[in-house]
Amino acid sequence: MRWTLAAATGVALVPLVLILWYLIKKGIGAWNADFFTTDPNGNFLGDPGGVKSAILGTLEMVGLATLIAVPVGIGVALYLTEYGRAGWFGSAVRYFVDVMTGVPSIVFGLFIYITLVVSGIGGSGFAGWKGAVALSLLMLPVVTRSAEVVLLLVPDSLREAALALGAPRWRVVLRVVLPTALPGLVTGSLLAIARGAGETAPLLFTAAIVQGTSFNLGERMNSLPAQIFADVGQAQDRLVGRAWGAALTLVLMILLLTIFARLVARRSRLA
User: Fold this and answer.
1) Other C-beta atoms lying within 10 Å of the C-beta of residue 35
2) How does pLDDT run across 181-204, given as a tens digit for each residue?
3) 3-state secondary structure of 220
4) CATH at residue 245
């Protein structure tokens, strides 16, 4: 049985290894100093430029989406595990979170497009913060469901021991439940961030595609998924190569973020 499980694990890793190998093979050739330090210039004949604006735009929009989705998602999960385990309201919230998990990403993009872009709420036209809101809607159910599962794994004996010592419920949650579940919460949040960082459809309807770098979330903003979408269907090999390089950059960004968050979570647990 041990060898059977090892073989099944190896089979599951084959597609992942092949994808990473092909991505490195196709994308590493596009990497150079200009690739990371210049913006797309719209030149179809010569040097098309780099993806600096796409990298910065992705970091800004995903960062804002994380600030929205992670606290709200963990807060909803805390309510479901600590106060809403029984009762119709908690069941209804859990049901709608499950429904949101299966909603296609383009639906969230169209929803924000209709409610914020077309209606002109918060300023007319496309904007980076509207793209971040669309990404946060995608990330919210992932954070909530993963956090709920992790919080349910915290033994009830820890809660009961803290309550028996006279600690109020909110202090038990802050000082006992959350620190115990921190590594799992970080993992769930990273899964949500990875999904949000790789989505294209919501950003096409909310943040659009631009060439220049912008630090103003109230303006149109470029992103790596949108840049990949715009480049990969072009006839010029330079643009297709830039798309592969941007895809490799996106994967590397998620990898570095995962390693950093793991180190932070391990250090917090040891402390």
Assistant:
1) 18
2) 888 888 888 888 988 888 888 888
3) coil
4) 1.10.3720.10
